[in-house]
Amino acid sequence: MRAPRRHDPASQTRYQDLKQLARTQARVLAGTPGTLKQRTQAGNRYWVREYLRVDGRKADEYLGPAASVPEPKVAALRGEIELARSLAAGSSTLRVFGYQRIERKAAAVLGAFHNRGLFGAGLVLVGAHAYGALLNELGLVAAGYRTQDVDVARSQPLAVALPGGTTFGQLLGETGLAFVPVPAMPSHRPSTSFKLPGAESLRVDLLAPGRLAGSVVAVKELGTHAQAVPFLDFLVAEPIESVALSPNSAVPVRIPSPERFVLHKLYSSQSRRADRDKARKDLEQAAAIAVAVEEETPERLCDVFRKTPAAAKTAVARGARAAARLLQGMHAGAQEALARMARS
């Protein structure tokens, strides 16, 4: 494992400015920002936003007849397009500086969630994309990750429901991508995952707390089911506001707090003993975030560790011992914090 380092202060300021700008969006535009145009068909003029979808195809967002679309609505859409262009440009600049970005199709999924108000209602981005967002939040340059999968979680019923009859799968269809349910095992169980067909690797998993890993939990407000993950409620109990950068956009999201992310990754590393690669990845991510936490708020990790559910503490302590070894000779403060947890 390489020691994580900090982005320079100027680029950290750029990121925070872009984050604040992204959070002013009323909606995340589908695809590229595009261009506002008037078209004529059968002698009738109408307004559209011409843009490229995330699958590369050209599309029009229809606004209405030119004679009946009020100027304030046209001006508002121009403003949305200019804002989207600024965010895309800012995201590209930050990518040059080494900030983490997600692929267009994964960002389209997050944009659909944002536009439906799901993050504000309690949905939390977890998994690898949450790790990337945390690196950006903390101003850390560290080894990236290779995944398109989108993992989102909710600990309690969301404070907003999809319109009557709308399912989670139909919501994913608002991205313009043809997601299909992933067959469960055994086949009579309801699906908790959706993916793009064929060789496309993008997969969306909905997660919820549960004692038995992999069991199925009904999520009535989204018209679907989720996969149970132990101690997930601890992970998402104190989420923070963040933004997911992509080539087309910057999407407001909520992610776990850094301290809880570290502790849950330590726990997860000990439950993946059959998959050593994923277990090591969990430990490396936990160690990298632990470095930033201990630099900014010494003792914070140990304070939050005391709040860890008793049933998870032994596994977290074992993970902490392994993560401390990864930081040998890299960061004494974070290594000592992990070692203290290991001795608890």
Describe this structure in words.
The protein has 344 residues and is an alpha+beta fold. It has a domain at 257-344. Helices cover 42% and strands 20% of the residues. The protein is built from 11 helices and 14 strands. The chain has helices at residues 9-22, 71-96, 104-115, 127-138, 168-173, 232-235, 258-271, 276-296, 300-305, 310-326, 332-343, and strands at 5-6, 35-41, 44-52, 58-65, 124-126, 140-141, 150-153, 180-181, 193-195, 203-209, 216-219, 224-229, 240-245, 250-255. The strands form 4 sheets. Strands 5, 7, 8, 9, 10, 11 and 12 form a 7-stranded mixed sheet that branches. Helix 1 (9-22) runs antiparallel to helix 2. The mean pLDDT is 92.
Total beta-strand segments: 14
Estimated share of beta-strand residues: 15-25%
Helix count, DSSP H or I runs of 4 or more residues: 11
Q: Termini, distance in Å?
A: 25 Å
In helices, the fraction of residues equals 40-55%
Order of helices and strands: EHEEEHHEHEEHEEEEEHEEHHHHH
Q: What is the C-alpha radius of gyration, as a whole number of Å?
A: 22 Å
**Helix/strand/pairing category:** alpha+beta
Poorly predicted parts: none
Instruction: Report the mean per-residue pLDDT as an integer.
Output: 92
- Give the biggest sheet: 7 strands, mixed
* Structural shape: globular
